[in-house]
Amino acid sequence: MSDYGDVTEAGTVRFRRVLPGPVERVWAFLTEPEKRATWFGGGPMELRAGGAARMHIRHANLSPGETPPEKYRKANEGIEFDYCILAAEPPRLLAFTWPGEEGTPDSEVTITLTEQGDRVLLELTHRRLDRPGMIDVSGGWHIHLDLLRAKLEGTAAPAFWASVARYESEYPQRIP
Predict the structure, then answer these.
(1) Is 158 part of any domain?
(2) Are 20 and 118 in contact (CB under 8 A)?
(3) Domain of 146?
């Protein structure tokens, strides 16, 4: 299984990671704001269909000592946005909207967790994207899921901004 996102249909990219379990621990890193902030972004989340959520992504906390590329300097200090929970079935399914860029509709993210012995298969599917959106979110999900795996394994996190630059150059060739 590759760490790279796969195009599963038009406008859809899927990522798969096998992570150390148990499933409840992985679920906690997806849904508890303090734990989620260590690999992605914190913020409150009402875990029910139709629930409100707010994301606070602080890239500077994910990339200590790294200088972000110029185009991400502003984002490095923080991004905040509201989104909506579409489904929450602890500890197996989480689905939510993802705000589109100005003038584009929201997309949808679904994360499923499946136990595999003492490991957990995480599948993240991001739908309703145009090609530029697929390229953009693919690099982001790739590095954030790498950070999640490192956090769960207790290993050193990869260099955030160096990874972003790498995936930005690779995904345009991977997304048809």
Answers:
(1) yes
(2) yes
(3) 6-174
CATH number where 91 lies: 3.30.530.20
In a domain, 73, yes or no: yes
Lookup: tokens for 176:
């048809």
Q: Tell me the pLDDT tens digit for each residue of 41-100.
A: 999 999 999 999 999 999 888 888 888 888 888 877 789 999 999 999 999 999 999 998
Is this model's pTM higher than 0.85 or not?
Answer: yes
In a domain, 157, yes or no: yes
Does 1 map to a domain? Answer: no
Q: How many domains does the chain have?
A: 1
